[in-house]
Design goal:
The protein is of the alpha/beta class. It contains 15 helices and ten strands. InterPro entries: Ribosomal_uL1-like, Ribosomal_uL1/biogenesis, Ribosomal_uL1_3-a/b-sand.
Length: about 375
């Protein structure tokens, strides 16, 4: 009998195993039902009810509440803050409001991109939404003051930045735009794709920015994708939250976006992919987190992530902690009143004859903490083995 072949899952298939469609749909239905119920209870228990407000206003407010997908990992995803957000194209776009105001920050010159938007090939619905086009040079010249930057921030709902100049925007716009992730410029590539020649070779990119810019139809398609995409803001932590929908949506739409975002995150942004994923949740602004996936193992690699008390690393950490505690104890035991300056010779003599501080009580506390931590590790290991 021939030996059977062992089949291994690809990374995308393993991501599908982590994100269960049925569990995602159940969590979406339960979350939407809970948010609707909580909104009705909050409106009914209000002390002063606005009689002039219509019921449609309450429904609109509920429909605008965002829904977040939270992914936690066993180890950090990123080491540093990234000011440039990533994009995940969703099956159901986030921003479909026809009255949304978009500001496009382009490369020099801005007149070329204004002409592309004014072209007949550019869709009329998106021409109305793009209310301002400004290049990075004029942006830096006109909006130097903090008040002008705040005014620009308040005038538009979405900001788009050409991917060629997106890294220059944090210095130009400052903390007005980059203090939070609400209206950070979304990168959009306004360059045209290289068309292959007849013999299969690609053409070289022209040096002129106008010559290598995209057509009006391509530009509109890229802007539409960027405005409706989910934004990924990675921070040096094990937690990443991404907006995937709103409370006024259907459960199937929220579930579809949740699956797409989770699978793309695991495939593209999480090191070691599904092995590093600890949990996936869905939550609203004021709700508890509903689990979609929970990992069976708490650590990525038990031998590396858990340090035994007898190891050299644990002894070094304990010695460093003891030294730091001794320094703090010495500083606390020092005189509170200001003393007269002591000569250098007297300082050296005092340093030679100074007795060592008594840290017996602190050593006892450290030993008790170590014993307590050892018991907690043993209990956790026992729970994982079960």
């Amino acid at each position: 009998m021939a030996p059977s072949k062992q089949m291994t899952l690809r990374s995308s298939d393993s991501a599908l195993q982590v994100v269960d469609p049925d569990q995602t749909l159940k969590a979406s239905k339960a979350l939407l039902a809970h948010m609707k119920k909580a909104s009705k209870e909050k409106a009914a228990s209000a002390d002063k009810k606005n009689l002039l407000a219509a019921d449609s206003d309450d429904e609109t407010a509920l429909g605008e509440q965002p829904i977040w997908l939270t992914l936690t990992t066993k180890r950090h995803i990123s080491d540093t803050n990234r000011l440039k957000p990533g994009k995940i194209v969703l099956p159901h776009p986030l921003n479909t409001d026809p009255e949304v105001s978009v500001c496009l920050i382009s490369a020099d010159p801005q007149r070329h991109y204004k002409n592309l938007i004014a072209s007949e090939e550019f869709p009329e619905e998106w021409r109305k939404r793009i209310t301002r086009v400004i290049d990075v040079g004029k942006l830096q010249a006109k909006f130097k003051q903090y008040e002008e930057q705040r005014k620009l921030y308040a005038e538009h709902d979405v900001f788009l930045g050409d991917s060629r100049i997106i890294n220059r925007l944090p210095k130009v716009l400052g903390k007005t735009f980059f203090k939070t992730t609400a209206k950070r410029p979304i990168p959009v590539n306004l360059e045209s794709r290289n068309k292959p020649k007849a013999d299969g070779k690609k053409e070289k990119k022209p040096k002129d920015d106008e010559a290598r810019s995209c057509t009006p139809a391509e530009m509109a398609a890229k802007i539409e994708k960027a405005v409706g995409a989910a934004l990924v803001h990675l921070s040096p932590s094990t937690n990443t939250a991404i907006r995937i929908g709103y409370a006024g949506w259907k459960a199937e739409e929220v579930a579809a976006n949740a699956r797409t975002v989770a699978e793309t995150l695991i495939e593209k942004y999480v090191p070691q992919k599904e092995k590093n994923v600890r949990s996936i949740y869905l939550k609203g602004p004021e709700t508890v987190a509903l689990p979609v996936y929970l990992a069976g193992e708490l650590w990525l690699d038990g031998e590396k992530d858990i340090v035994s008390n007898e190891s050299e690393e644990a002894k070094a950490l304990a010695a460093a902690e003891k030294a730091n505690i001794g320094k703090k104890r010495k500083s606390l035991d020092g005189p509170s009143e200001e003393a007269a300056p002591v000569p250098k010779k007297a300082k050296k003599a005092k340093a030679k004859t100074a007795p060592e501080s008594d840290d017996s009580k602190l050593d006892k506390e450290i030993a008790e903490r170590k014993a307590k931590l050892k018991k907690q590790k043993a209990a956790a290991k026992k729970a994982v083995d079960i």
